[in-house]
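Tokens in:
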């Protein structure tokens, strides 16, 4: 099958990105009827509907979803290719990442990056939700996983590592001497499967269902605050809490640090790989990590 008309693909890309005929029409400088006409031509050519039209909203069909990502990436690459070379003189780099990585490692370094790039506005957003680059105003994201997100360029940053940490007062109170002693102590987010991994590597059996109720918190930052308050033992990444370890407010009682096969990755759509702001941020991150071996 030959490539559909560019006008129809352009309309489909805009509607798929916004999930709105109205917003797509405004962006393209067309009437809503003209956009609908192009979509109808494309659907007739393909023989299948691309959108489910409801009273106040639309959504992609299964076929529409299949075609949307590569089409959006292709137009993103075209926009990048034909962009004004001077357009990056003043621009915004919007970064999305999980709260723990942002608060414990990235935010303290972003000022340095922005000072080195004074014409670049930097915006940091934190969320546990996966970014949809086609519909959200996000330039890059830092995700936790294995780096295998379709349609995205991924750069490995660091492994996800963890080990028990607690206050020295709690360690003394419970006479913590060996890993087995942890089994009788209050563990924060005890249902976290990483506890089982760490315990197994320490030669211990860890029950799938924790023997007692306990605190379950949404991020490592919250767990660290609870540990600092003396409410239990947190499973934390040592490099994220160096200050607490250096000052003695938290201790790492055992040298064993475990991994779960996941890592932190810088990701962005493939069509953006040559965008100057992203190239600068990628180089900055990799340089900072090379100076911070963990």
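Residues out:
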């Amino acid at each position: 099958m030959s490539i559909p008309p560019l006008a129809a693909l352009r309309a489909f890309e805009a509607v798929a990105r916004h999930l709105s005929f109205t917003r797509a029409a405004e962006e393209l400088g067309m009437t809503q009827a003209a956009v609908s006409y192009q979509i109808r031509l494309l659907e007739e050519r393909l023989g299948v509907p691309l959108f489910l039209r409801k009273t106040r909203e639309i959504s992609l069909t299964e076929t529409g979803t299949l075609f949307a990502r590569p089409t959006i990436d292709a137009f993103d690459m075209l926009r990048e290719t034909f962009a004004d070379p001077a357009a990056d003189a003043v621009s915004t780099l919007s970064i999305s990442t999980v709260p723990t990585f942002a608060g414990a490692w990235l935010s303290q370094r972003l000022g340095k990056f922005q000072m080195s790039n004074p014409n670049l506005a930097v915006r940091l957003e934190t969320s546990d939700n996966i970014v949809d680059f086609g519909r959200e105003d996000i330039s890059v994201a830092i995700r936790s996983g294995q780096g295998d997100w379709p349609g995205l360029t991924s750069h490995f940053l660091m492994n996800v590592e963890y080990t028990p940490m607690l206050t020295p007062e709690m360690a003394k109170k419970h006479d913590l001497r060996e890993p087995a002693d942890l089994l009788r102590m209050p563990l924060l987010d005890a249902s976290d499967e990483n506890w089982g991994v760490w315990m197994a590597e320490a030669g211990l059996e860890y029950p799938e269902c924790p023997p007692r109720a306990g605190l379950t918190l949404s991020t490592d930052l919250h767990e660290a605050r609870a540990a600092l308050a003396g409410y239990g033992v947190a499973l934390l990444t040592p490099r994220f809490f160096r200050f607490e370890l250096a000052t003695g407010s938290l201790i790492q009682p055992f040298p064993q640090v475990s991994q779960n096969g996941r890592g932190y990755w810088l990701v962005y759509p493939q069509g953006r790989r040559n965008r100057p702001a992203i190239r600068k941020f990628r180089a900055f991150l990799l340089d900072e990590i090379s100076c911070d071996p963990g």
